[in-house]
Every structure is written in C-alpha cells, then in structure tokens.
Amino acid sequence: MSEIVIKAESLSKQYEGKDILRDVSFSIDKGEIFGLIGPSGSGKSTLIRLLDLLEMPAGGKLSILGTDALASRSRFDLRNRMALLNQKPVIFGMSVYDNIALGMKYRRKSRQEINDAVHDVLEVIGLHGYGNRMARTLSGGEAQRVALARSIVTKPEILFLDEPTANLDPHSTKKIEELVLEINKEYDTTIVLSTHDMLQGQKLATRIGVILDGKILQTGTTNEIFHKPATTNIALFVGVENIFPGTITGNKNGEVTIDIQGKMIQAVADLTEGYKVSVLFRAEDVTIHLEEISKTSARNIFRGKIKSLIPTGPFVNVIIDCGQDINALVTLSSAEELGLSFGKQVWISIKATAIHVISDL
C-alpha cells in the first residue's frame, strides 16, 4: 500500500482580497514525481509555497509526512525535512562548494560530513572539480545545477521544484530534467514539480495535477490528463486540437454513435441516447490516407481536403476540411512521403477508442 506523504484538503489562499487558491485537495505518495501544470498566474507557485510551509493557507488542512503541517510546533521540524528550488534561485557570491554547503552548515553538520556530502553531490550534478570556482561566474545552467545541489545535499524527503528550467536553454533544461529523474531514483525523493511546459510534465511526472484559476481540476496519470481530460477547459490547456459538440444518438454495448452537426462518429462511452456531449481527440490519433480504405480497425473514416499545413519543428499540423476542420499531426518526413499539399483530397481514420467523450449535462 502506498504511503501518502502530502495530503491537502480544501486549501485556500487570498492576497489583497483576491482568491489565489480555492478548495485545493489532492494527495501525493512517497517516491512520486508529482507534476503541477497550469498557465502563469494559475496559483502553482503559491501552492508550492504553502506546501513548503513558507506561507500559511487561509483555510483547509495540510498533512505532511504524517504530521499536521499547520501546527506551529511542527513547521520547523518539517521544513528541515524538505527543500525548495525556485525558478530564480539565489546564488551567493562565494565558491560553488560554500553555496552547496550552506544548508548543512545551518544544520551544524561536521566538517567531514559536509565535505563528503558536497563532493558526492558535485558528482551527481556533473560538476566534479567545480568546488573552488566562484558560483557567480558559472553559466545559467551550471548555476541552476548548483542551486539544485544545495537543495538535495541535505537529502530532503520532499523536494519542491518551482519552474526549475523556465529560464534555461534546451541543453541545460535537458540536464536538469535528467538530474530530477536521477535524484528521484537514487534517493527515492518525493518530488513536487510545477511547470507550464506540457512536454516536461509528460516526461517527468508519475502523476499530474492540473491547476486552473486557483483550483486543481483533475489529477491523474499522463495518459489520463492528456488523452482523457475531465473538462473541455483542461482539454484546451493540454493541447487537444479536436473538440466538437455533439449528441448521443445510440449506444450498442458501450459503443456510442454521436451526431456532430450531421456527421456520425463512433466512440466508447457509458452514455445513453440524448446526452449532449463534447467529443475530443488528439491530432496524433488521426491517420491520413491517400486512398479510400476498407480494411481497418478504425471505426471512423472521413473524406476531406487539406486546408492548410503548418510545420512545427519535426512535425506538420495538417488541417483537413471534412465538413468540420479536423487537425492531424504527422512527421515532416511522412508529409513529404505522402505528398501532402493544399487542396489535396485525403481520407482520415480515427479509432473509436482514441475518442474521449465528456458529458455536458
């Protein structure tokens, strides 16, 4: 049975009379990487500060490591068992070694303990031999690694990371992400990561909580959040490109037929005839064919014409007019091999199991 290390119940927070967090409830298990995703201003950083006990909530309950975290007698002891890495951490005008050793010195550890721990963590972050360098002469990515080392050198049971790669280049971001996974695996550290980077959330998190307008609207696995969002607002935030209103016209053993402005689509859902719904599917779940197909496991096949092609890095977003605009995502090489071009007639197929249905009732 999993051990719950953080449990929040109905947390709230206001600043200057404005609700920042409202009725926030969730739990985090030991050893998880729990990702908090949401747009800027959604309340992610405020929630991290509440969990790290830097601020107190206006209401609600908070249990951390089996202790009532809001009891004043508990806060100091709990904070010694946790660590926080901010988006823009402070790098002090001293050596890399002394920057990393600060937390251990505050905890009155012996010189030998500090020396051993700092050298061990320099190995972990890939900065062996950097101990005597002045920390403020390092690159942004190296400085962020030093700040991360300072956070983990005391071996916290819970590590909070607030947008840890927001100001870094792609190479430095990749290094920090690798370190997060290594720290989690090596020390079994429970990590709470806030990010607005959808891809980072998918790569790192064991589970994800979506926070919009100060409320956590859904928690779940990467697949649940990105392929089975609980609301259309969540779907829009996590980048679901195809969202259509419809009405259930029939249900046969759990396979429903949905009328989308006269176009019938098949999906899997436990809903009965007459329900108003939203139909969602991701662009990568749409397959493009050059000829009409008859042998396929996909239940939904439509003909259309290519309306536009939008290159996005190694991919191409293809918009196909099938009576409604449907987005498909293919690799650049696949688009070239298929000879996709504006106005070209194509067929698309979508499996019924790839379609997510949300009741609007």
User: Which residue ranges are poorly predicted, with pLDDT under 50 across at least 5 consecutive positions?
Assistant: none
The number of helical segments is 10
Q: Return the structural class.
A: alpha+beta
Q: How much beta, percentage-wise? A: 35-45%
Describe the structure.
With 361 residues, the chain is an alpha+beta fold. 27% of the residues lie in helices and 37% in strands. The chain is built from 10 helices and 20 strands. It has helices spanning 44-51, 72-79, 96-106, 111-124, 140-152, 170-187, 198-204, 222-227, 232-237, 332-338, and strands spanning 4-15, 18-29, 33-37, 59-64, 67-68, 82-85, 158-162, 190-195, 207-212, 215-220, 242-252, 255-260, 263-268, 276-281, 287-289, 300-312, 315-321, 325-331, 345-350, 356-359. Helix 3 (96-106) packs across helix 4 (111-124), helix 3 (96-106) runs parallel beside helix 5 and helix 5 runs parallel beside helix 6 (170-187). The longest helix is centred in the middle third of the chain and has 18 residues, at 170-187. The protein is globular. The model has no long low-confidence stretch (mean pLDDT 92).
